[in-house]
What does this fold into?
Amino acid sequence: MTLPNSLTFLRIILTPVFLFLFISESVFYKQISLAVFIVAALTDWYDGWVARRWGYVSRIGIFLDPLADKILSSAALIAFAQLELIDVWMVWIIVIRDIVITLLRSIAEYKDQPVVTSSTAKTKTFAQYVVIYYILVLYVIRTIPFINRDYPNLFLVVDNLLHPQVLFGMMLLITILTVWTGVSYIYTNRKFITALYEKSNRPNG
It folds into this structure.
């Protein structure tokens, strides 16, 4: 197994670890979850760099790498919803869109038929990770006991930054971008998607 693929599998393995730690009641576990998420996210950057630098490109890597990224980001959003930081309906829209589009992209890349990805979709992905880090870091800070005890003003600032209306507005923007880029992606690549559908429904023999 190549190094990039090993890092991809590591990212997949770290995802449930992050999820367990973050939604636990232990403040220490929540702090560790932040480190786990950062390490998992860094494997995405590093495995991509290694693959490009040394040419370690494989079929399984092409398929799994983007899927592993979406599994990680989806796990974070699900964890936030579990803790009632964000609305569940937004999370499901984002998760379903991301998994479906990523699977289509992975299948296309696997078949050597790369599909078109718009700059808006890249902006959406960047904005989504900004929001994830925003919520994750501030939430972990807010759970640290001495912040509330020794730095009440800082705690108040963090608490205001995590106000439900603030998070709702941020997530609403991400959800709108998610729907827009999903519809745009399907329309732009409709010929490939139609051909894939027809092939899957073609009787054998």
Notes: The chain has nine helices and no strands.
